[in-house]
Amino acid sequence: RFRRAVADAAAEQGRDEAEVWSEVEGYLHEMSAAHDDRTSQGWARMGDWFLRAYDVLVDEDDMQQLRKLDRSHSLALAFSHRSYLDGMVIPNVLMARRFSPTYTFGGANLNLPLIGSVASRTGLIFIRRSTQEIPVYRLALRSYIRQMVTNKRNMAWSIEGGRTRTGKLRPPVHGILKYLTDTVQGDG
Length: 188
What we know:
The structure is a single chain. With 188 residues, this protein is α/β, with parallel strands linked by helices. Strands 1-4-2-3 form a 4-stranded parallel sheet, with helices on both faces. The N and C termini lie close together (10 Å). It has 8 helices and 4 strands.
């Protein structure tokens, strides 16, 4: 399916298929994330340290319901993004309760030389914000999300797609949610 999508994209754009494959591979490499246990545990401890001044309230009854779903499905968890700490809460709460690892989508602008390489080993997937002019990038992201759902990976992201300098919430961005629903419905 993925090979056919790349071939179709090359044909639509009037480009050589090998050239499109090379571009897709580059984007997938840029997005790639994994969970290294030692790195993830250190990242979680750092997140807990940052969150030490806040009360994180968790409904343990709802956690039990989520745990049942976690055994056989991907969990898709959207959060609001008033601060950079918001992206640490969900993965840390789930990790502390021994859920399957959570992959969190974050802006490519945060992929800084040292921090980015560490963060990607904790399941942070760096994605570009504006992709209207890059159809091959959207194909790669859609395919990456499809594979994550196929592999029953949990995903979290800021529904606003970023934050403002003042902390004011932006309107929702539906790209990741659209890719997820398309995948679940079999359209993606």
